[in-house]
Amino acid sequence: MTTFVIVGxxxxxxxxxxxxxxxxxxxxxxxxxxEPELPYERPPLSxxxxxxxxxxxxxxxxxxxxxxxxxxxxxxxxxxxxxxxSAHTVTFDGDTxxxxxxxxxxxxxxxxxxxxxxxxxGVLYLRTLPDSDRLREVFTSGRRVVVVGAGWIGLETTAxxxxxxxxxxxxxxxxxxxxxxxxxxxxxxFAGLHRSHGVEFRFGETAAEFHGxxxxxxxxxxTSKGTVLPADVVVVGIGVxxxxxxxxxxxxxxxxxxxxxxxxxxxxxxxxxAGDVANSxxxxxxxxxxxxxxxxxxxxxxxxxxxxxxxxxxYDRVPYFYSDQYDLGMECAGLPSPGSxxxxxxxxxxxxxxxxxxxxxxxxxVAGMNVNVWDISDDIQSLIRSxxxxxxxxLADPTISLSEV
Length: 405
What we know:
Low-confidence stretches: none
């Protein structure tokens, strides 16, 4: 019997298992997840569930009965310790299992802050369901929360804490919010949204030390400029690192993730990678891209499954992500990171928080974000994929359909 093994109990791994069965694979599927939870997706952890607007199981990909119903051997709370490529085996809990094809969907882990006081009680991160459980417990009215990092996770947790009645201060070394994600142009719009809800930002500063009380609980944050910020809770959101330990030890090619081709195949033809851990060649960009967002796991897992089955796969989806903060909803397509564009064109006024931003390079749209404007993400993705020169006037004119630009 052919055995496909999936290492990683998140959205990418669960959707890969689902796709294998949907495509008619009748061999054994073994899905390992190192958490005791059923496989789950992460957006609710910083959005609906954290805000108290959605139940905990809203994050679950499939309910428990789905796995036996589809003959998927789900092993939760089990960590795969090693891969033996020559023997085609994985090792776990002192046991081994042989595979014919292997998918690495091991995700990423939060980057830990390395400063004095980093291990104090009350210094928290957000990556797992238990992390979100803990934040729900500590985000209570009147508490003083310091968020370290003004990226997407930092801002979404800031919104959740603020809406729970906390007093929130955000410490960020860059000159604006979302600097690494969007460049310098859009950060002020998002920071302004939070300031309108009473959030304080300290840009150009880093957390230098966390100070605690005699019981070992955090009480304040000392910044690089010598400012002391009272803190009952600290949330650290300074990015994630791909979980490449297994791949590295197995001798796979690794560079900011597990390196794969456009078919999500690693340097070993029987091992694939998908989701946050995969740095995959992207035909649209002509180089490897590692995308940490939900849509990449949602679509990458199924693409890897089809590739494992021998189908022709070219994973070339335009990267996509979204965010919800207060009454702001946003979708972004493409990769608008600093250095990837030379100008930004707006359709609407960013100050109104109802606009579309387009990042251009050489007159071509490389990314687009719609903020509180809906049903145009597909058009933005079509513009990006077309790689054609666009008319700036038409791009900025809301009376002209994007399909006509």
